[in-house]
Design a protein that fits this description.
Chain lengths: 636, 208, 249
């Protein structure tokens, strides 16, 4: 039975109650305890720095050449906090209920409330670190409303909020590295989790420069390894983003949840050809002034300016008169897909919709638009060589954020004692759909404020435990698995590259388990992925040696994506309802809106690994709502 | 670097002002200039300054050598294909080369004038001052000598064009308000120094 | 279009490297520069050759992981553009493109175009932070910072740490990188307390890492993807001198 370990007491007191009762570790004893933190994004870096500040020995890992490059850098929009600086009625409770509702009632009340509760403190922390948030002329912090909420709670640092927040965390981490309390391992990839007597006790990594397979032992292991949206190949994620760390932990017994809940961001640049490797996100703020439309008639090849007003379909304004172009991400993305599938898509690959600023320019003047979005228009020009002041932009939905991840309890501990998952790597807080600007927050709050309580609470029990060294047979065995897999990749000697398989897999998932899915598409996709997976192990070709070898790195990641992809389909198949980002075509209202089924599916699915190509076992954690009432999301 | 460089820059102004006397009509110039040279030669303070100056030049050159070697070491492997020049000015990248030209010039210059005036005997003029003026005029009678001077001053000009503002940066003048001021002052300064020094040999060559 | 390539291949730091010639016949002008390299690597795999190792991650100009010398210039022909943001439409059919790693003694080659920029992290470790441990921060609006100061701090703080400034500098100096961080914190009231120690430690560390001496050629600002201003270097020099004086007193 899954125990989420939610503390007792009224919602607003739970976190305080928890903090007041956690076990403590004597400062003198802390240096005897080792913690491994994999990941240096907002979650990993803040956690590693915070634990080191407390006095624990920390080892920090990332696959990039510097901890500062984790993909948290890419976040543009902002970070939410219930500061109510604008006096517009925001509060912890309102932020909590917005987040629960935005997640379509598929997240835990206690976790979400804590997120909102700690949000204000994160802004304080970041400001203290020197993060240059936007300010008003009087010197006070500025913020704005974002992602369809009615209050201003999004703090931002130009279009680089993630970069600036991450630099704050990275610098805190570097401070600890400089003082010798953290040892940083860059260009290291975690390839195995070591579990001894049911507890996480270490990891196996590969040094991406020397190729060496290394063993690292610790009293606890923390995974802050980010999201796996890259499973679709084309996504807004970085090229190296992967599921390997969490997937290998999953294979060692950590359950996965919300696996198929993946947010597609509506305002990304469309794929322009077979060569495409990544889809760039254009800030959502563009939808404040841009109008989204497609030609009314399918297969209309005319240029945008040649299509008269009457032959344009402003489908968001048509379907959602209240929210219009500002409809939430999942809804906007799905509506775009619906039009594209109907043959109305535009662009070379007919896979995009127009984002048109002509009305805004006419009403407000080009200068005003320039003032608001000039950097975005510049990026657009850089990538497409198109002047968006004159022609509409082309945008398209792209895989962006994974609500799913490792199942964790209130303490952010997975089903393996001593293994914690933070940030995008866990499933918590966002339910079936994430609200914009909530995930930088979640990653930071997990690392700065929650882990420094919950991990020591676990470590307190470790003081008396027997000290494990890397000579333990479990390390030898884990290392052997890693070595065998790598050797296998190098010796298959087939014909096709890892990228080839990754692109194919991505396409299958996009079509069968993407913005919309059905029993039929999912069953078909499972069969196709299984076949492709078989081919992968027979026909993969990796050149080069065991030292620096990006192809070898890719192979391991793609291998895990295959298994993950299969679980995504199973997860989507098992949930016979539509909620948030999970849209089952069979379960929709007559006018095409998501149809949630609270009677049968108001639970978190937690999947247990049962072996290679064996069906997973489904565990259910019921969701109880005592403080909000389950309503139907409507943006009409 | 900046300290010695700017000290040299300051000295150049004094030096040029003194030399401008050479542009006076010949007879007057001879009297003035020789008197001036005598004044300098006889003054203990000026003696000290001139040694400080020499030390500054040496210190500037030695420091230049040190930073050049440091940079060479910092560079590591050379680029096989290098077009980095596109992103900076030529003189800013070749301060060492320009400086070397200046150094060679200085050796010649000091030997021909400083050494001659201070350490050799020569004719005296009517007032009984050493006749430096005639030495100068005679020297600039050779076209190739004039040419050496002109080339060296061009090198100096480019050195100053970068050096003046670079020194301000090295000293930490960062406020945008002063940045342009420094740049314009640098241009004016460079034009004045280079123009002045370049004019004298040409004037003497054609007027004697 | 057809593209000829001359690419630096080097097995490891211990072995010698050389420029190797390649050719691609079907390059689309819509491709990004890195996608062109993907295409080349795909063809190398088909020929059973080891692929060209190059650094990249976000491919949207923000992580600072990518960066090579393209036709002799850091991040290629366009000013203020990362390698990953460069597109093949900046080249013509039949062009020869020379590609080399960012070079500096403080950036040792890992393999081919991959380098190690650990030295930049070391500079930050020596003092590129404000010591504010988790949990001890005061209320954010308790500290007012004027809009222009916040913006100026942001300008300095927007560095992505790619190292193009070092690569393009004839002196391989890291002054732009170091000074940007020093300026950001010197401007902010939060950074004031550690100001003296910070600048001394960071400048010393920069020297210890083996970077060269800045001679203000300003090439760094031209290539910097974030358009970081060289004036920060002057400011660092000011802060450094002031710190030396203060320390002595
Ligand atoms: C383009 C884009 C824009 C976004 N905009 C916003 C926004 O405006 N507001 C918002 O709130 N959220 C936004 N998000 C989401 C948010 O940025 C992320 O959810 C969040 O930053 C994740 O942080 P993290 O620390 O969990 O992971 P990451 O920052 O992704 O860090 C992952 C770390 O794990 C390491 N790692 C991964 N795998 C391994 C392995 N196998 N071995 C060793 N190390 C490994 C990596 O090296 C890296 O250090 C955006 C996301 C994207 C992609
Ligand atoms: C009258 C003679 C000279 C003057 C007035 C002069 C002036 C200057 C000035 C003002 C600077 C800038 C200092 C800084 O940025 O910190 C400079 C730099 C430099 N000088 Fe000179 N210099 C002279 C002679 C020389 C000589 C003889 C050499 C070489 C042997 C030389 C080599 C250099 C070098 C390499 C630099 C460094 C570049 C730089 O910092 O920008 N200079 N000089
Ligand atoms: S790959 Fe991230 S900046 Fe180029």
């Amino acid at each position: 039975m899954l125990d989420s370990k939610i503390p007792d007491g009224p919602l607003a007191d739970k976190w305080d109650n928890y903090k007041e009762h956690v076990k403590l570790v004597n400062p003198g004893n802390r240096k005897k305890l080792d913690v491994i933190v994999v990941g240096t994004g907002l979650a990993g870096a803040s956690c590693a720095a915070s634990l080191a500040e407390l006095g624990y020995n920390v080892k920090s890992f990332c696959f990039q050449d510097s901890p500062r490059r984790a993909h948290s850098v890419a976040a543009q929009g902002g970070v939410n906090a219930a500061k109510n600086y604008k006096n517009d009625g925001d509060s912890v409770f309102r932020m909590f209920s917005d987040t629960i509702k935005g997640g379509d009632f598929r997240s835990r009340e206690a976790n979400v409330y804590r997120l909102a509760e700690c949000s204000a403190n994160l802004i304080d922390q970041a400001v203290a670190q020197g993060v240059p948030f936007a300010r008003e002329y009087g010197g006070y912090l500025n913020n704005r409303s974002f992602g369809g909420v009615q209050v201003s709670r999004t703090f931002y640092a130009r279009g680089q909020t993630g970069q600036q927040l991450l630099l704050g965390a990275y610098q805190a981490l570097m401070r600890q590295v400089g003082s010798g309390k953290v040892k940083a391992y860059t260009r290291h990839e975690m390839l195995e989790l070591v579990v001894i007597d049911g507890k996480a006790k270490g990891i196996i990594t590969r040094d991406l420069v020397t190729g060496e397979i290394e063993r690292h032992a610790a009293n606890a292991v923390v995974l802050g390894t980010g999201g796996y949206g890259k499973v679709y190949y084309l996504s807004t994620l970085a090229m190296g983003c992967n599921s390997s760390a969490i997937w290998r932990a999953h294979k060692k017994g950590a359950y996965m949840s919300g696996v198929s809940w993946i947010q597609f961001h509506p305002t990304c640049l469309p794929q322009s050809g077979e060569h495409q490797s990544k889809l760039t996100l254009m800030s959502e703020s563009l939808r404040n002034d841009g109008r989204i439309w497609v030609p009314l008639k399918p297969h209309d090849d005319r240029k945008a300016i040649d299509i008269p007003e009457a032959e344009r379909d402003y489908y968001l304004e048509r379907r959602y008169p209240t929210f219009g172009n500002l409809a939430p991400r999942d809804i906007a993305s799905r509506a775009a897909k619906e039009r594209i599938d109907a043959g109305c898509g535009v662009g070379v690959m007919k896979n995009a919709v127009f984002l048109d600023f002509s009305k805004a320019i006419k009403e407000q003047g080009q200068e005003k638009i320039k003032e608001k979005y000039s950097n975005l228009f510049k990026i657009y020009d850089k990538i497409n060589a198109v002047n968006a002041y004159e022609e509409p932009m082309l945008i398209s939905p792209a895989a962006h954020f994974t609500m799913g991840g490792l199942w964790v309890d209130y303490e952010l501990m997975t089903t393996i004692p001593g293994l914690f998952a933070l940030g995008e790597a866990n499933f918590a807080d966002h339910g079936a759909n994430r609200l914009g600007a909530n995930s930088l927050l979640q990653a930071s709050v997990d690392g700065y404020f929650i882990a420094p309580y919950s991990i020591p609470n676990y470590l307190a029990g470790e003081l008396k435990a027997e000290k494990i060294t890397t000579d333990h047979p479990a390390f030898a065995e884990a290392e052997k698995t890693v070595r065998e897999q790598l050797r296998n990749f190098l010796t298959i000697n087939g014909r096709l590259s890892a990228d080839h398989f990754h692109k194919k897999l991505g396409q299958l998932l996009y079509n069968g388990c993407g913005l919309a899915r059905s029993k039929e598409s999912l069953t078909k996709t499972i069969a196709e992925i299984t076949a492709l997976r078989t081919q992968f192990y027979q026909d993969l070709k990796i050149t080069g040696d065991e030292k620096v070898n990006s192809e070898l790195e890719k192979a391991g990641r793609v291998a895990d994506y295959f298994d993950l992809g299969l679980l995504m389909c199973d997860d989507a198949l098992s949930r016979e309802e539509s909620c948030g980002a999970h849209f089952r075509e069979e379960y929709q209202t007559p006018d095409g809106e998501a149809l949630r089924n609270d009677k049968d599916y108001c639970y978190v699915s937690a999947w247990e690994w049962k072996g290679e190509l064996e069906p997973h076992e489904l565990h259910k954690e019921p969701l109880v709502f005592e403080n909000v009432s389950l309503t139907v999301r409507s943006y009409k | 670097m900046a300290g010695t460089g700017l000290f040299l820059c300051f000295f150049l102004v004094i030096h040029l002002l003194g030399n401008l006397q050479l542009l006076l009509p010949a007879a007057e110039a001879k009297e003035q200039f020789n008197w001036y040279s005598h004044l300098l030669a006889g003054n203990l303070f000026i003696k000290i300054v001139s040694w400080v100056l020499l030390l500054s030049i040496i210190a500037h050159a030695v420091y230049a050598l040190i930073i050049t070697r440091k940079s060479n070491k910092a560079n590591g492997t050379k680029y096989a294909y290098d077009k980095r020049g596109a992103s900076s000015t030529w003189n800013s990248r070749n301060m060492g080369l320009l400086g070397t030209v200046i150094l060679v010039f200085l050796v010649i210059h000091l030997k021909d004038f400083w050494y001659v005036s201070d350490f050799t005997t020569m004719n005296l003029d009517k007032q009984g001052n050493k006749d430096m003026y005639s030495v100068v005029v005679l020297t600039f009678h050779e076209w190739w000598y004039v040419l050496i001077y002109e080339i060296s001053f061009i090198a100096l000009g480019f050195h100053l064009l970068h050096g003046f503002f670079s020194a301000a940066r090295t000293l930490g003048i960062y406020h945008p308000k002063y940045v342009n001021l420094v740049r314009y002052t640098g241009w004016v300064y460079t034009a004045f120094i280079t123009g002045g020094f370049m004019l004298i040999p040409i004037y003497l060559y054609f007027n004697n | 279009m057809k593209i000829y390539l001359k690419i630096w291949r080097q097995d490891s730091l211990a072995t010698a490297g050389e420029m190797v010639v390649y050719q691609l016949d079907e390059v689309s002008s819509d491709m990004s520069f890195l996608e062109m390299l993907d295409l080349l690597n795909e063809s190398l795999i088909q020929k059973s050759e080891r692929v060209i190792e190059f650094d990249h991650d976000c491919r949207e100009g923000i992580c600072g992981q990518c960066g090579v010398m393209i036709n002799g210039r850091a991040h290629g022909p366009l000013a203020h553009t990362t390698t990953c943001q460069l597109h093949m439409r900046s080249f013509k059919d039949g062009d020869t493109i020379h590609i080399e790693p960012f070079r500096a003694a403080a950036f040792p080659v890992v393999r081919d175009l991959k380098i190690n920029r650990h030295s930049l992290d070391k500079i930050i470790q020596s003092g590129g932070f404000i010591s504010a441990s988790s949990g001890e921060a005061p209320e954010a609006n308790g500290l007012l910072i004027s809009h222009p100061v916040a913006e100026a701090a942001f300008d300095a703080g927007s560095c992505i740490g790619c190292g193009a400034c070092v690569a393009t500098c004839k002196n391989s100096s890291a002054d732009l990188f170091t000074s940007a961080k020093i300026t950001q914190f010197a401007l902010l009231p939060q950074g004031n307390i550690e100001r003296t120690e910070r600048v001394l430690a960071m400048v010393d560390q920069m020297d210890a890492e083996g970077f060269g001496h800045c001679t203000n050629t300003e090439a760094c600002e031209v290539e910097c993807p974030q358009e970081i201003s060289v004036l920060h270097i002057a400011r660092m020099n000011y802060e450094y001198s002031k710190a030396l004086l203060l320390k002595r007193n």
